Amino acid sequence: MMKWFKGFSLATLILLLSVLIVGCGSDTTSEDGDDTENSGSSSEVTEVSFWAPFSGADGPFMKEIVDSYNNSQENVKVNLQIVPQTDYYTDVDLTLHSGEDVPELMIMHGDQILTYSEKGILKNLDAVLGDELKVDQYHEKGIDGATVDGNVYGLPLDIHPLMFYWNKDLFEAAGLDPEQPPKTREEFVEYAQMLTNEEENVYGYAVPTLWPQQFIFPTIVAQNGGSLYEDGEVNFTSPEVVEALQFQVDLINEYNVSPSDIQQDGEVTLFLQGRSAMHFNGPWMLEQFVNSELNFGVAPVPRLGTEQEAVFANSHNFVIPEKADEAKLDGVVDFLLYVQENALAWANSGQAPAMKATYESDEFQSVNIQSPQVAKQFEIAVFNPKVENWSQAVNPLMEAVNSALLGQKDVEQALEDAQKEATQALE
Amino acid sequence: MAKSLSKERQKQQRISKFTSFLFVLPYLTLFSLFLLFPLIYGIYISFHDYNLLAVTHNFIGLENYVDIFTPDTSLNTQFFRGLKNTLQFVVYSVPLLVIVGLSLALLLNNLPKRLTGFFRTLYFIPYAISVSVVSVIFLWILDTNSGLINKYIMEWGGTAIPWLTRQPYAWIAIVIATLWWTIGFNMIIFINALNEVPDDLYEAASIDGASAWDKFRHITIPTIKPITLFVTITSTIASFNIYGQPHLMTRGGPGNSTEVLLMGIVRRAFEQRELGQASAMAILMSLLMITVSVVQFRLANGKKRGES
User: Fold this and answer.
1) B37 contacts in A (CB within 8 Å)?
2) What interface predicted TM-score (ipTM) does this complex get?
3) What value does the mean pLDDT take over residues B141-161?
4) Looking at residue A385, what is its pLDDT?
5) Are the beta carbons of A107 and A317 closer than 8 angstroms?
6) Chain-wide mean pLDDT for chain B?
7) Which of A284, A302, B145, B296 is the most buried (most CB within 10 A)?
8) Residues in contact with A422: Cβ distance below 8 Å, sequence separation at least 6, in sequence order
9) Among residues B280, B269, B287, B283, which one has the least CA distance to residue B76?
10) How many angstroms separate the CA atoms of B61 and B47, rounded?
11) Chunked in runs of 10, what are the mean pLDDT values of chain A (427 residues)?
12) Is the CB of B77 less than 8 angstroms away from the CB of A261?
């Protein structure tokens, strides 16, 4: 009985699997059928498939650009496919891995370009750059971020640095000018002390112990004139890095301007509740702050470090997969040319487009309260070091920042441990 | 005549077997497609240097497994740290999941019949919520500086408790969130088990003058023992698979003290794209879970086998 059952079930299983595989196969052919049908009706239209991770409030603005491009001409039709942000790179990886339905154009974060270009997955854009589509039409920092070993792999859509937000009502209540954000460490600490009122549970600032330290910590390190990676090695124990962490610990313990034990998103809650007056976060927070009806301002980050102006940033870039259909390349270039001149809609998301034609235009200066402030920081933007698997070095670093800010490890000890683990991870 | 009759019976039997088989077919299909096949493929991948973005995936035998057991590699650090933290969670959560589940079931069974259904639903509702929602609810309730619980603690003159940023509170918070979320399932199973206990046993015991505790110890517990074993094993497996709560509530912190094994596996697979290494970690984790379940099963049934 058991034997019979086993044999039978195995046979059925194989049968089922083969039916399913055939099913999948016939599915794709029917899609192909649709495609030929479409191109049959208007034979010259090039269909470009374009993937982007803008599943948040920014999605409609990218769609606006794509729609206006599609309406502006008849030869190319760009199909924007928005993939949920959390699954984006998994989906990209699996598609590129299978080699089927590879999009002709994709958005990729600047800190991912190295990994993909090293694997030979991205097209070197020299092939498409020409008289009209030119790197000098973009901010050079954006191009830098998309360049690996002298080869350009992406054209920047935007650069998104860390931003500084402050609560104008609390500034006013503390006797500060609500239109004057702090510019230096000294001012920041002084303002924070004036803004802190422990009896009423109001703080000048709230030091996050988790995200977005991935942006805040490298910002202060760069402002100290330091870097997290130097001469081919992890550099977490240098004086500049130690100082950056010590300063943040001091904000909690020495200057007493921040509550301790901030949990995940706790600093956002406090800022939204009007219980912390100053706040660091990415430009993507704009919409949430606007909706909260908070009376807030946004500005370039103050210099919290000791040496120079700098801000950590990431970027969104247009990239073309190596496996993309060559026949559609002209269509892609045409679209990129259009975006090069018509990217203002993207600023409505609170981001600052990296195209000169946009961020240097007059309309851009009044598009919203944030985007022009974002563009002001292009010049001082600092990106992740171009090291493969750098995120594996960032994980232990962030654990060290977390332990030190929570007072569970000595600053230097925490960074030494992270140094060891990050070195191991990059081997 | 007799011969053809038995042939007829055989034929009927075969038809009935085939009909039964049709009923298990849907499950079998899904099982093969989403469990059996991925499992076998996972084992296959774990023997390869399988970077998702690389063009070639070389067969490297047991190298991924050897790396996991080689001290001072990042794979080794990640695996054993995750394992240690996961095991901690299993040890903290499983006894509570079983005891609280049983207690709730006993409580509900002793309520007036009209209320039982209401409270059963009430306790079961959280089980239907997704882990992201559960985590957000607890993030807000437990927030150190502006959470509900600390607000009351401070109003009563206490000092705020850093629920998610210090140990042991972080584990306590994660275990409480898990209990609130999943206890309904165990409770329902225990309620059914309790209803299966024959009433005449209790009556006989009452006549003999047994106290409520005696009845619970000598009638209820032995009768529901197989169910208790089932609940223990399913809770253990579920606890091994902990991911969402620490991922969303503590992000593995403070430091890396709640960084559980699955977080490490997910990072390997989808941040580093090293599917081979991630699969090897996952296979080892499954082997461990199987071992633990078998041990639990043996321990629970050991006595019975001794008797027979």
Assistant:
1) 17
2) 0.80
3) 89
4) 93
5) yes
6) 90
7) B145
8) A234, A236, A392, A393, A394, A396, A397
9) B280
10) 5
11) 46 45 39 40 78 90 93 92 90 87 93 91 87 87 92 94 96 94 95 91 94 95 94 93 96 93 91 94 92 93 94 95 87 91 90 92 91 94 92 93 94 94 89
12) no
User: What does DSSP assign to residue A146?
Assistant: T
Size of interface A-B (CB pairs under 8 A): 118
Which chain A residue has its CA at the smallest distance from B27's CA? A13
Q: CB B32 to CB A13 under 8 A?
A: yes
The Cα–Cα gap between A156 and A135 comes to 9
CA distance B193 to chain A (A): 31
Q: A256 CB near a chain B CB, below 8 Å?
A: no
Q: Which residues of A touch B248 (CB under 8 A)?
A: 264
Q: What one-character DSSP code corresponds to residue A21?
A: H
Residue A423 contacts B, CB cutoff 8 Å: no
Please enumerate in sequence order all residues whose Cβ is within 8 A of that of A29, keeping only pairs 6 or more positions apart, or say none: none
Contacts of B81 (CB under 8 A, 6+ apart): B256, B259, B264
Q: How far is CA B169 from CA A69, A260, A316, B144, B257, in A?
A: 54, 15, 39, 11, 11
- For an interface test with A, give the residue of B48, B74, B154, B259 to mutate (most A CBs within 10 A): B74
Which among A12, A116, A262 has the least Cβ separation from residue B53? A116
List of chain A residues whose C-beta atoms are within 8 Å of the C-beta of residue B23: none
Q: DSSP of A51-87, one letter per residue? A: EE---STTHHHHHHHHHHHHHH-SSEEEEEEEPPGGG
The answer to whether A207 and A256 have CB atoms below 8 angstroms apart is: no
Q: Which pLDDT score is estimated for B277?
A: 94
Distances (CA, A) of A332 to A198, B214, B219: 57, 79, 75
Q: Find out whether B189 and B226 touch, Cβ atoms under 8 Å.
A: no
- Residue B260 burial by Cβ neighbours in a 10 Å radius (0-12, 13-18, 19+): buried
Nearest by Cα to A211 from A276, A296, A284, A275: A284
Whether B246 contacts B216, CB under 8 Å: no
- Nearest CA to CA, how far is A22 from chain B (Å)? 15
Kindly state the tokens that stand for B149.
């619980």
Give me the domains of chain B, ranges plus CATH numbers.
72-307 (1.10.3720.10)
Tens of pLDDT, residue by residue over B163-184, are 999 989 999 999 999 999 999 9
| Cβ separation A392–B271 shorter than 8 A | yes
Contact A210 B251 (CB under 8 A): yes
Vertex A78: Cα angle to A74 and A81 (nearest 5): 155
pLDDT of residue B5: 64
Residue A36's pLDDT is what? 40
Kindly determine whether residue B144 and residue A263, on different chains, have CB atoms separated by under 8 Å. yes
The pairing of strands A147-148 and A151-152 is antiparallel
Angle at A345 between CA A343 and CA A349, to 5 degrees: 115
Question: A406 and B253 in contact by Cβ < 8 A?
Answer: yes
Residue B73: the pLDDT is 87
- At residue B303, the pLDDT reads 57
Percent above pLDDT 90 for chain B: 62
Answer yes or no: do B255 and A20 touch at CB < 8 A. no
Q: Is B200 exposed, middle or buried (0-12, 13-18, 19+ CB in 10 A)?
A: exposed
Average pLDDT over residues B241-267: 93
The answer to whether the Cβ–Cβ distance between A269 and B272 falls below 8 Å is: no
What pLDDT score does A25 carry?
39
* Whether A263 and B72 lie within 8 Å, measured CB to CB: no
Position A70: which residue type?
N
Tokens of A401: 């920042």
